[in-house]
Protein 1
Amino acid sequence: MTGFPGPTGSIVFRNRDLPALFHHTDSTAISHQREAVGSTKLQLLLLVLGAAASALPASAKAGDSIQLSGVLAVLAYAGVLLVGYRAGRRSAKSHWQLNRSAAEFIKSLCWRYAVHGAPFTTTATASDELFANRLEEGLRELVKVGWEDPRTGRTPTANGEMITAAMRRLRAESFSIRKETYVRDRLIEQRNWYRRRTANSRRATRLWSLSIGLLTLAALFLSLLHTFSLVDSLPVTGALSAAAAGSLAWGEVRRHQPLIAAHSLVEEDLAAMHTAMESSVTEAQWPSAVYETERIVSPQHTDWLARHRS
C-alpha cells in the first residue's frame, strides 16, 4: 500500500499493493497479448503485401527469368506460413487469455478480502485460511484448462505472501474507510477504464470502417472501368480487395463492435452500483454488493456480454 491517506481519511490501495503472483501473471498476459496480436497483424500485412507484389508490372526482372514481383510475393506468402507456424507452436493467444483470467481472479479475490466482500465478511472466521483455500481452488481450475502456475517452476517473482501487508491494513480499517477506498480505487477506476475502452473502440471502428469503404470504392471504380472496356484488367484491383479484406479481418480480431456494446453495459452496471454504494448499501449489505461488483468486472462477464451482444 502506498501508505498515503485518501481525501477523507481513507487509504490508497493500488495494483502495486497486490501480491507478487498477480504482477507476474499480469505481465505474462501482457507479453503474450502483444505476441498474439503482433503475429496476427504481421500475417495480415504479409498477405496484403503478397497481393500487392503480384500486382506489380512484370517488367522488373533479376536476370533473364526471375520476376522481382514474384520474389516479393513468394517471400510474403512464405512469411505468412512461418509466422502462422510459430504462433501455433507458441499458443500465445491461449497463454494470454489464461494469464489474464488468472491475474483478474487474483486481483478480485484480494479486493474482496481486503474490504470484507463476500465470503470474507467481518464475521467470517479464519478469513486468511478461507482466502488461501478459495485462491488455490480457483487457480487449480485454471491449471486444468492449461494455465501454467509459475510457482511450480520456482519463479522467484511469483513467490511470496499472498495476503500482503497492505491488504491486511485495509481489512483492519473501519467500514467507512473500506467503503470509500473500494469505491474510489476499484469501482471508479474500473468505470473509467471501461469508458476509455468504449471510446477507443468507437474511434477504431470509425477508422477501419472508413478504410474498408475507401478501399472497396476504389476497387469498385476500377472494376466498373474494366466492365465498360474503358481500361484493361488492372491487377491492382486484387491488391485493393486484399487490403480491404485485411482491414475487415483486423476489425474482427480486435472485436471492436461487440466490445463497444459489452463495455458500455458494464459501465452502466458499475454506475448503478456506484450510486447504490454511495446512497443505500448498508454495512450488512456491503459484502454482497462487493461480490456483485467483482462479478460485473470479471473478464468472463465481459466476454459473455460481447458474445451475446455481437
Protein 2
Amino acid sequence: MQPIGGLHRFTPRGIAASVKDVVDQREMLGLLIKRDLKSKYKDSALGFLWSLARPLVQLLIYFIVLGQFLGAARGIPDFAVYIFTGLTAMGLFTEIAVGGTGSILANAGLVKKVYVPREVFPLASVGSALFNFFIQLCVLLAATIASGHPPLHWGILYAIPALALVVVYGFAFALFFGALNVYLRDMQYLAEVFTMLLFWASPVVYSWQMVKDLVQNPVLLELYTNNPLTLAILGFQEAFWLAGEDLARPDHLLLRISIALVIGLVLLLASHRVFLRLQGNFAQEL
C-alpha cells in the first residue's frame, strides 16, 4: 500500500515540488499573513503596538522581580537591554512554534474547501511572527542607543545566523506539531508547555556565566550550551548587548551556531517529511 501523498513526495524531487507549490501560492501566503496580523488587533485603538505590550510587561516584571528583588541584575550589566534581547529572540520562537502548531486547525475551513499547499498555514505563522519580531527589534535598537551602547560593531553580524537558527527550529517545530495537532488536539497545549520550559532552559533572565559557575559537570554544560535556543540567544546578545563584554562566553560560538543550523535544516526536512505523510487526511480529520 502506498503511503499517504505518494512515495514521490518524500524524495528530493518531491520536496522540491512541494517548495515550488508554496512559491506558486505566494499571493495566498501573503493574504494569510495579512489576515493573521489584522485578526490579532482587529478593532483595537493601538493596533500593532499591542505586539509590544507582552514583551514590555515581561521586561518590567523580570527587571523588577528577578533583577532588583532577587538580585539577578548584580552580575549582569545593562540588565534591561540584556533581558529584552533574550525576550525578543525567545518571543519569535514561541510565536512561530505555538502559532504554527495551531495553524492547520485555525484554518480548518480553508483546508476542507480549497486546495492549497498545507505548508502555507504554518508559514503564515512564521511571516506574522517575523513582522512582530522586527517591531520589537526596532524597540531593542532604541533601547541600546538610550543605554549608551548602540551595536555599532562587527558583532552585529551574529544576529543573522542567530535569527536563522530561531526561524529554522521554530518552523521545524511548527510543521511537526502542527501536523500532529490535527490528529491529537492536545499537541497545542504540549507546545505551549514545551516552549515555556525552553524559555527557562535558555539564558534569557540569567547569564550563561551563572550556569558555567553552577554546573561543574562539563558534559552537562556542553549539553546546555549547545541547546539551539541557547546558542541563538547568545548570538543575539553578542550582536546587541555590548555591556557584557567582560562576562564569560562559550568558545567558538559562531562555529556552534553553524553546526546547530545544519542540524536544524536536517530536522526541518524530517519535519516536512512527517508533515507530507500526514497531510493527506487533514480534511477528513477536520
Protein 3
Amino acid sequence: MRVLITNNSLSARAGTELVVYEIGRELRRRGHEVAAYSSTLGEVAELMVGSSIPVVNQPEACPFQPNIIHGQHHLDAMTALLAFPNTPAVYHTHGGVPWVERPPVHPRILHYIAMCEDLADVTRINLGLQRDQVTALPNWVDLNRFRGNHQPPAKPERAVLFGGGLGDPAMVAKLRPAFEPLGIRLDSTADWTETDRRTPELALPRYDIALASGRSALEAMASGCAVIIANHESSTGWVRPDNFAMLKRQNFAPKRPDPGFDASTIQTFLSAYDAESARKVTLMTREQCELIRAVDRLLELYETTVRSWTQRQKAARDWELERAEEDRKAALNYLRQLAVAVRDVEALHVTNRRNQKQIESYARAKEKLANEIGHLEKKLSRTGNDVQLVNQLRRHWLGRIALSWCGRRARN
C-alpha cells in the first residue's frame, strides 16, 4: 500500500503531528510505502525523515503515486486531493472545535475516521452520513515507548500535571494545596528538563499519580501511573476499570468546563486513591489502546476504501466525465465555504493593522506629551524660585520700591 498522510503542521511535537509520525513509522515497519505532506515543516518532519519517511511541503513532490490519501486537517487534505485526482481518501478528524479539523466533503473522501465514539457521532450527524461511513478509532499509545514499568505504591509520593494546559505556574499553585497535606510532591512538565519533555516515556515512570487528559492520559496510564482525568478547566476523577469504557468513548477528557474546579476537587479524588485499580487500568490501556491495533484497523479501512473506489470506476460508463464533474462541484463548494473564513481572517488582519497604527500613533503622542511635561516642570521650577524672590522683596521697604519700579518699566 502506498499512503500519503497530510497534516496542518509537522513542526512541534504535538498531538496530530505525533499521530502522523507514529502511523508512518508503523506502516513503514510493515513494508508499506509512506510519505507525509504538510505546508508547515519542522522538528517532527525531521524525525520522519530520520526514520526514512519522505516529507514534502508540496503534494505533487510525493515520490510515488499514492493508492490512498490519509487526510488530516482540511486545507492540506483538499490540496492533496486536488494534486492526485485519481486517488481516494479517508479523512481523520481529532477534534470538533479547531477550524482546521472540520471534515470537508468530497466525492473521493469515501470514509471518515474520528478519534473517539462521541466525535464519530458528531461527524455523522453534521455531515448527514450513514453509520458505516464513519469509524471511531480511539487514540492509541506506542507500547514500544511507554513500557508500563512502574507500579503505583500503596501510598503515593509523587504526582505530575501532564498536558491539557496544566503546566501553567498558576495552575500548579492552585492545585498544590491538595497534595501537600498528604505528603505528595507535585511537579508539572514545566519543571522537566528538555530531555524529559522530549521523552515523556522516561519521565512518567517516576510518578505515582498523573493529572492528564486525552493522549497524555493514555501515555500516563500505559506508563503505570494512577490517572486523574483533568485539564486546566475541569476534572472528572480517577480512571477506574468500571469507567474505562465510558471515558474511552470521550477520549479520556472532561466534557465541559467546571467553574468550581480547584484544589478541594482534587483533594476529594485523592482520598479515594487505589493502587490496585490503577494497575488494572494500566493493563486495560495496554491491551485495548495500543498503536499496533490502531494501524491494523487503519489498514482495513484503507483496503476497503481502495476496493470501493476501484469498483466505482468499473461500474460507471462515463466514469471520467462523472468523476471530473463531481470533483469540480466539491472543490467549488469547498472554496465557497473557505471564502467566508478567509474573508473573516483578512478582516481581522486589516483591523489588527489599523489598531497597530493607532497604537503607534498613541505611543508617539505619549512621547510628545512626556517631553512637554518635562519642559513644563522645568518652567514651574523656575517660576517657583521667582515667586519666592518676590515674597522676600515684599517684606522690605526697599524691595517694595524696586518691585514698583519694575512694574512701571514693564507697563511702559
